[in-house]
Amino acid sequence: MLDTTRSCLWLWLLVLGLLLFTTNGAYVPITYVQSAVAKGAVCLDGSPPAYHWDKGYGTGINSWLIQLEGGGWCNNVSSCLVRKNTHLGSSKRMVKQIPFSGILNNKRIFNPDFYNWNRIKVRYCDGSSFTGDVAAVNPVTNLHFRGARVWLAVMEDLLSKGMRNAENAILSGCSAGGLASILHCDSFRALLPMGTKVKCISDAGYFINTRDVSGGHYIQTFFDQLVATHGSAKNLLPSCTSRMKPGLCFFPQNIAQQIRTPLFIINAAYDSWQIRNILAPGIADPHGHWESCKLDIKNCLPSQIKVMQDFRLQFLVALLRLGKSASRGMFIDSCFAHCQTEMQGLWFMQDSPLLNKTKIGKAVGDWFYDKKPFQKIDCAYPCNPTCHNRVYDDPHAPHS
């Protein structure tokens, strides 16, 4: 009996291991853009930018999907110095290979529309969503604020490796990378031939300008400092910076309507990063009343759920500033989640979250190929039983 139990357990672990291996897809090695250093297109510490490239094949050989890595931002010299010694500030600290899953998966069963495309994960090491460009380098800190140069150097490298022949192209990203995919959407389109079908996807990148639980303007102040530190203003949309201060032009609600390239917004209405860092950041909650709620939405008190419902309404108002356009896509679920394209279980699996009986991967694929438009906003929490609500272990974990 004991041997049978052990055999069953071993078999179960084997199946689980195989499932994890197959859903993650292949491990993809890193490529350093050494030529970028001479152009001053470098990470915070002066190291070269980097990306991971899984080459396309078959019908996808001339299709390119660029996924911009997320990871928050640094808004001043102190926070950038901390970041400089991590993989979010130095390519020297990056692992040499990473697994591709979700929208980057190389298996048709898990990524039916993009599995055989050229899939690239651009690593994030500048702390400004690829917008900064300060020529001077302080000899004391040795910090390089060169995100915009990094963006261009990586794109030029990929163009030289075949992207200039792209028939289809997507600029996508998650979190800070999702914001970058909005900020750089039209410039990405401009890099490619006129005949290329180009669209952009922003996953968990629609950060809104709202008051925190103390009534303060934490995120607005943060973005003001970020833009000033990185010299980002000249790389933000002139049509926005000409009518409002540059920090406000870091918010998608003030710029997304002006994006001419087709754009798909994927976002949880209760985005767990925004709840944790915009609505209830530590500085606005000194006594930690929100800590348990931020770890797991099931821990939230009725009064906190009410505040989060109000946040959802503010998010929807900010989102609807996009205006109506048949070319845009929208998948706004009511999950407590953040970044849903890169996680296989959220992108395209049997139990993935549904909106209008449709998985994210299916909605995006149909939208890109003009099979079917998708613009859906979920009902309020807790109405969607298919949600995978995020549960955090460490309240002091670094930004995702």
What attributes does this structure have?
400 residues; alpha/beta; Rossmann fold; disordered N terminus
Q: What would your notes on this structure say?
A:
- This protein has a single domain, classed as 3-Layer(aba) Sandwich (Rossmann fold), CATH 3.40.50.
- The protein has 12 helices and 10 strands.
- The protein has helices spanning 2-24, 77-84, 147-160, 176-183, 185-191, 218-230, 238-241, 272-279, 291-295, 302-320, 344-347, 360-368, and strands spanning 27-32, 50-54, 63-68, 97-99, 118-122, 168-173, 197-203, 263-268, 329-333, 375-377.
- A 10-stranded mixed beta sheet has the order 4-1-2-5-3-6-7-8-9-10, with helices on both faces.
| Count of DSSP H/I helices | 12
Major beta-sheet overview: 10 strands, mixed
Low-confidence parts: 1-9, 11-21, 395-400
Give the number of DSSP strands. Answer: 10
What is the overall pLDDT average?
93
Fill in the CATH topology: Rossmann fold
| Strand ordering within the main sheet | 4-1-2-5-3-6-7-8-9-10
Rg, nearest Å: 21 Å
**CATH architect. name:** 3-Layer(aba) Sandwich
Backbone structural class:
alpha/beta
Range of strand content: 5-15%
**Overall geometric form:** globular
CATH evolutionary superfamily: Alpha/Beta hydrolase fold, catalytic domain
CATH class: Alpha Beta
* Element string (H = helix, E = strand): HEEEHEEHEHHEHHEHHHEHHE
EC number: 3.1.1.-
Subcellular location: Secreted, Cell wall
GO biological process, one term: cell wall organization
Pfam families: PAE (PF03283)
